[in-house]
Recover the amino acids of this structure.
């Protein structure tokens, strides 16, 4: 049975949505959750009938979102530190945290260690496309400054994830640039392009719109650009929802049309809702680390746990190491 360590204290709204999400997951899948955090708070949120299926690891500390990630290494009684230590000690197969993403990433990298031939881990996130499939973008925040070889490694890890987790047998890989022509880009992307050419799956430069049109499956970039892409996409999705509500309420005719289009609107909301994905895997570290949004709902946490279980059961880390060995 897969065991998942869950940082119960890290989210913006306290332990409730995290515990509730894990309990929802437990109703659908058989796994062993280990909640890490304030035992009294956690225990009060768990129904008696489920207490025999979970474990609680108590701690008195957690890393606040406003604190520096560098504090995490010294805070050995924090919930995220203890959750990652459970993976390091082999007591858990993976960790899910909606807490401080920088602390989670730093601790996972330093305490769990990197996979062989991986210089930098990368945070990968799913994006909706117009072709009823998801694209994978990495890195979206782990590495602000990158070298060409880092982007090459991101491509290998992303390709492996797309094949073995997203069940895409022939993913197309592109590098995010300011134009599709080979001569476009900055020094980083141009040099990375030369390395990526050795991959049969590489289709060349792609632009921002290609992330969403389904023409490419894996998009690589440095974490500075990737994080801007991620935050922009989230902002556009929220704005679309507000725009639609505003104009529907402004007109009786629009309200009638909205009633008829209710199913379409529901599908759109599902496509752009981060809760449907749950979290972003940190690729390139040993074990499994899923980084969730601080404002995660129970549904988002449930799906993050499902991601972690799929990650562990796929043995994706061994596949990444073998693929890197082949191409380096």
């Amino acid at each position: 049975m897969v065991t998942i360590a869950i940082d119960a204290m890290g989210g913006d709204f306290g332990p409730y949505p995290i515990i509730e999400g894990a309990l929802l997951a437990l109703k659908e899948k058989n796994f062993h959750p280990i909640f890490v955090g304030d035992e009294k708070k956690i225990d009060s949120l768990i129904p008696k009938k489920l207490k025999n299926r979970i474990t609680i690891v108590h701690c008195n500390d957690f890393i606040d979102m406003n604190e520096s990630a560098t504090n995490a290494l010294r805070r050995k009684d924090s919930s995220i530190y203890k959750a990652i230590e459970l993976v390091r000690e082999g007591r858990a197969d993976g960790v899910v945290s909606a807490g401080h993403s920088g602390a989670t990433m730093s601790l996972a990298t330093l305490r769990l260690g990197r996979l062989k031939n991986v210089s930098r881990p990368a945070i990968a996130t799913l994006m909706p496309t117009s072709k009823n499939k998801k694209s994978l973008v990495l890195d979206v925040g782990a590495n602000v400054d990158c070298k060409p070889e880092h982007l090459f490694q991101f491509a290998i890890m992303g390709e492996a994830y797309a094949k073995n987790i997203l069940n895409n047998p022939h993913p197309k890989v592109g590098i995010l640039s300011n134009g599709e022509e080979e001569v476009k880009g900055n020094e980083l992307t141009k040099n990375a392009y030369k390395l990526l050419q050795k991959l049969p799956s590489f289709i060349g430069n792609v632009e921002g719109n290609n992330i969403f049109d389904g023409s490419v499956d894996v998009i690589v970039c440095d974490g500075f650009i990737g994080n801007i892409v991620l935050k922009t996409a989230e902002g556009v999705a929220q704005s679309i929802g507000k725009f639609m509500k505003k104009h529907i309420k402004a007109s009786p005719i629009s309200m009638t049309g909205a009633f008829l289009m209710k199913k379409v609107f529901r599908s759109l909301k599902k496509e752009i809702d981060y809760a449907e994905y749950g979290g972003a895997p940190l690729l390139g570290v040993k074990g499994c680390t899923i980084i969730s949004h601080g404002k995660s709902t129970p549904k988002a946490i449930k799906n993050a746990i499902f991601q972690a279980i799929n990650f562990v059961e796929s043995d994706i880390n061994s596949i990444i190491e073998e693929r890197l060995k082949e191409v380096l």
Q: What stands out?
A: The chain has a mean pLDDT of 89.
